Amino acid sequence: MTALTALIRRDIRIALRVGGGALIGVLFFLTVVVLMPFAIGPDLALLARLGPAILWLGALLASLLTLDRLFMADHDDGSLDLIAMSRTPLELSCAAKALAHWIAAGVPLIVATPVLGLLLNLDAGSTLAVALTLLVGTPALTFTGIIGAALAVTLHRGGLLLAVLVLPLSIPVLIFGVAASEAAISGPVSFGTPFSILAALSLVSFVVGPFAAAASLRHGLD
Amino acid sequence: MLSGLDFSVSSGQALAVTGANGSGKTSLLRTIAGHIALTGGSIDLEGGEPELTLAEQAHYLGHRDALKPALSVLENLSFWRDFLGGEISDAGQCLKLVGIEHARHLPAAYLSAGQRRRLSIARLLTVRRPIWLLDEPTSALDSAGQTLFANVTRDHLARGGVVVAATHAPLGLEAKELRIGGRT
To answer: Which of A13, A79, A222 comes nearest B66 by C-beta?
Structure first.
């Protein structure tokens, strides 16, 4: 356990230091959401209707933004070799790295949501619903994203490839995330139905992501 | 890449792998460390802990130092100590031993190549592993550093450890030599 907490603490620390990736995601999220009302125009009803989708899209793109370096950085400086040789199973190390990435890059997005909800004319209840779906859904984005990040190590210079590989996997999360938010705001479907599927997607990704990423990394080391 | 290779190293012995650039020294070390799959033959470890693989009982010191520039020297070393686990000695003490104690709170980004090497050697000391796989361990080290490295390695061998080092420069200690490669 100490090994995994050490890994999580190290990754969070690096992300929060100058030049780390934690703030890049939030700033990107902020930019997308702030610009959106200017692009759509001052139609408050329309903004409120599009609000959950805009927030979800912004959060999805922001969480992918810093993901591609997740394993690449460790590969480039040789850390990945040592992580692979350690007594901690590689699957657990991958899960720990994904968790650290989510804490450093995903949680700030959720914290920022209430503020950004104001800009999109969402009332308190709606913003809370979006924040809740983001809290449940963004881990799925990170944990499926690490598969792409690991493949990027295997296929060198895979930055662009990452988007192509990961985006299809994140589409179900986006669909059910937005569906759950809208169900909470306007109905007619009950909130529980899409929300449970969203939670299930997250749970599946916790299991599949680390195993797939570790398998890919094992092939990728040379 | 390599074929027809047959060698053994026993406890307390050092093996110096020599050969021209590109002859496969690094590949040999990475194969022993488990990063490159064997296409034929086998690598066996007699003795050691039966439940652990060879790689899990080995230290690997490669070209790349596995240091994070954003973290301080001590943070880098403490991380590897906590992550690699095993039998542990004090990180601060090890930094003093390799002569970079004064830089302990400096971000690793500011270290020179020689200091980075010294920090990597400190990692070998902080976590006990019986097998050391070293790739050009003395590169970038000054003469005091090379003496330090020779002493540290000699201590490790005296404790019954095994050292396999790919090298061009003499290691400064008595070692069996394995000459590989060369498209002769």
So the answer is: A79
Q: Alpha carbon of A166 to those of A25, A169, B32, B88: distances in Å?
A: 17, 5, 34, 40
Reported pTM: 0.88
Give the best residue of B26, B79, B105 to mutate against chain A (max A CB count within 10 A). B79
Which two tokens mark A35?
């610009």
- The rounded distance, in Å, linking the Cα atoms of A107 and A82 is 29
pLDDT confidence bin for A134, thresholds 50/70/90: very high
Question: Looking at this predicted complex, what is its ipTM?
Answer: 0.85
Euclidean distance between CA atoms A203 and A183, whole angstroms: 21
Per the CB < 8 A criterion, the answer to whether A152 and A64 are in contact is no
Yes or no, beta carbons of B71 and A77 under 8 Å apart: no
Neighbours of A150 (CB within 10 A): 30
The confidence score (pLDDT) of residue B184 equals 44
Q: Work out the minimum CA distance from A75 to partner chain B, whole angstroms.
A: 9
Across the beta sheet with B131-135, the strand order is: B58-61, B131-135, B162-166, B14-18, B176-179
What is the rounded CA–CA span in Å between residue B118 and residue A71?
25
Contact A85 B70 (CB under 8 A): no
